[in-house]
Amino acid sequence: MSQRPQEIVLAEPRGFCAGVDRAIEIVEKALAKFGAPIYVRHEIVHNDHVVRDLRDKGAVFVEDLNEVPLGARVIMSAHGVSRKVRDHATERDLEVFDATCPLVTKVHVEVRKLAAEGYEIVMIGHRGHPEVEGTMGQLEKGIYLVEDEAQAASLSVKDPSRLAYVSQTTLSVDDTASVVNALRAKFPQIRGPKFSDICYATQNRQDAVKLMSQSVDLVLVVGSPTSSNSNRLREVAERHGVPAYLVNDASELKLEWLTGKLRVGITAGASAPEELVQGLVSAVKAAGAGAVRRLPGAEEHIRFPLPKGLN
After folding, report:
1. Which among 17, 121, 241, 292 has most CB atoms closer than 10 A?
2. Mean pLDDT of the chain
3. Does any domain span residue 54?
4. Considering the domain boundaries, does residue 93 fall inside one?
5. Considering 56, 85, 100, which residue would you say is the last residue of a domain?
6. 113 and 85 belong to one structural domain
7. Cβ atoms within 10 Å of 71's Cβ, excluding its own
8. Which whole number is the average pLDDT over 94-98?
9. Rounded CA gap, 122 and 227, in Å?
10. Would 192 be classed as within a structural domain?
């Protein structure tokens, strides 16, 4: 048996989603309209290449709004921010352009609505992730973070009959279902969202990896280590019995990974540019792969509108 890869299998869909496209376009349009510098709170999306490219164009990334001059323009990242951050922007008289993904904003609205109806809320997500901090920061109290089944089983709340849950939009579909089942076992009356909070793009990319895992010997995921949805794609492949690695770009490919792997699957997280995918394809081709096959997958035609003032 040949020790060199023979075929590359590309997942569909992969790479940029509508929320990421919109966030990047907001920064680029602001730079074109107002000129540099344009301040951005946190990385606009979790991809090192995207952030570096926008920084080269004049974007200034900050973690604290105190780093932004009074009255300047600032863009809130796609992950969303807490109400406290928004209040801080108002105090500093900043002109805010909101790049929060509309699907994250939907969760923020749901949290505030549930709280107004007297519910306590369970947030399923990863501690320290900016989307989780932004969502939990919609309320001053009455919201609990649960990361896994064990935490769900040990959770104590004031009134189990007035409890609801929401989730981070970039989680593993399967892991989230397990946590929800644990919550329902502990709190049978818990209320869930009408539609899953996990975004369509996360769902589609995970489904594509599940399909791809049936026919490949290795999965390579293009994405940054800080990208939640990219990490979940690697985990989905591993859960389906296929070794998988997360790489920023082709420079991180290790040829020993390819030894004995005839079919190499490639995908990308929702914040990874397609050019990085093609760079990885070229690197695997250089290692011996002669054919590239694209799998069928969900077609995505969603586009979110830009904020007023940037249309």
Report:
1. 17
2. 96
3. yes
4. yes
5. 100
6. no
7. 9
8. 97
9. 23
10. no
Place 2 in a pLDDT band, splitting at 50, 70 and 90.
low
pLDDT in tens, 228-240: 999 999 999 999 9
**pTM, 2 dp:** 0.94
Q: How confident is the model at residue 1 (pLDDT cuts 50, 70, 90)?
A: very low
From the list 271, 285, 306, 293, the residue with the least C-alpha distance to 54 is 271
Tokens found for residue 67:
């780093």
Length of the chain: 311
Q: Are residues 124 and 176 in the same domain?
A: yes
- How large is the greatest C-alpha to C-alpha distance in the chain, in angstroms? 67
Collapse the DSSP code of 286 into the 3-class scheme (helix H, G, I; strand E, B; otherwise coil) and give the result: helix
Per residue in 54-63, pLDDT (tens digit) is: 999 999 999 9
pLDDT digits (tens, 9 = 90+) for 74-88: 999 999 999 999 999
Which tokens hold the place of 183? 């919550």
301 located within any domain: no
What is the domain-level CATH number for residue 48?
Answer: 3.40.50.11270
Strand, coil or helix: 105? helix
Question: Residue 227 is part of a domain; what is its CATH number?
Answer: 3.40.1010.20
Question: 175-198 b/e with 16+ CB inside 10 Å = b?
Answer: bbeebbebbeebbeebeeeeebbb
Q: Which domain holds residue 249?
A: 7-16+200-294
Q: For the chain, what is the domain count?
A: 3
204: its two tokens = 């589609």
- The mean pLDDT value for 156-164 works out to 97
Distance CA 239, CA 209 (A): 11
Q: Looking at the annotation, which residues are catalytic? A: 131
pLDDT at 3 over 90: no
What number is the average pLDDT over the span 267-284? 98
Indicate if 120 and 88 belong to the same structural domain.
Answer: no
